[in-house]
Amino acid sequence: MRCGIFTMKPLWDRKGRFEMEKANAAFRKFTYGVYVVGARHADRTNALTCAWVMRVSHRPPLVAVAVGKTRFTHDLIAASGAFSVNVLAEGQVELARHFGLKSGRDGDKFAGIPYREGRTGSPILEGVAAWLDCRLVEGFPAGDHTIFVGEVIDAGIGDRPPLIYDPRDYWG
Ligand SMILES: Cc1cc2nc3c(=O)[nH]c(=O)nc-3n(C[C@H](O)[C@H](O)[C@H](O)COP(=O)(O)O)c2cc1C
């Protein structure tokens, strides 16, 4: 695969299992926040929990989210050309589990969840530490994920500190 001027080789070649496990062990040392990334298209509003979120530009203000190609939210972001990033607050682990451990393909994840629509129509959750409303500017394929890059067109902050990712909250 070409990536800028570099050609990237996949890690999992014939001897790759060992390398993959080393890489995974290193990745487990990464630190993350916990975000709920949402979108609305036609009559469906959906969101997923994402840890792989980062700011990628000052001017214009850009944020990137890595969303698995099989996720329902992936299709809504691609179709709507917009998404929201909700920065979960301390004490919102249950919300992270709600949006991260089941798919909106199997039911309406927003039933009973308080939210409003941002300027793009994407969902903004109540009580979060902060939120961004974004216009999709690029989508880059990255293995089994797509890196969606959004320009922030609206944002807000709450008064609670952000939730820090702890794998034991989700995977036992
Ligand atoms: C803490 C946590 C972090 C996650 N991070 C990501 C992520 O960065 N990218 C991703 O595609 N899925 C991530 N997931 C998995 C999705 O949230 C999950 O597959 C979700 O059910 C997809 O929902 P959807 O099909 O309704 O879009 C994460 C799940 C949890 C619990």
Q: What does this 3D model show about the protein?
A:
This protein has helices at 16-27, 72-80, 93-100, 168-171, and strands at 2-3, 6-7, 35-41, 44-50, 53-57, 62-68, 82-87, 115-117, 123-125, 130-142, 145-157. The protein has 172 residues and is α+β, with helices and mostly antiparallel strands. It has one domain (33-171): Roll (Pnp Oxidase, Chain A).
Précis, in short:
The protein has 172 residues and is an alpha+beta fold. It has helices at residues 16-27, 72-80, 93-100, 168-171; strands at residues 2-3, 6-7, 35-41, 44-50, 53-57, 62-68, 82-87, 115-117, 123-125, 130-142, 145-157. The chain has a single domain, classed as Roll (Pnp Oxidase, Chain A), CATH 2.30.110.
Largest β-sheet summary: 7 strands, antiparallel
Overall geometry comes to: globular
Number of domains: 1
> Assembly state here?
single chain
Strand content: 35-45%
- CA gyration radius, whole angstroms: 17 Å
The sequence of SSEs as H and E is: EEHEEEEHEHEEEEH
What is the name of the CATH architecture? Roll
Low-confidence stretches: none
Calculate the terminal CA-CA distance, rounded to whole Å. Answer: 35 Å
Structural class: alpha+beta
Mean pLDDT: 93
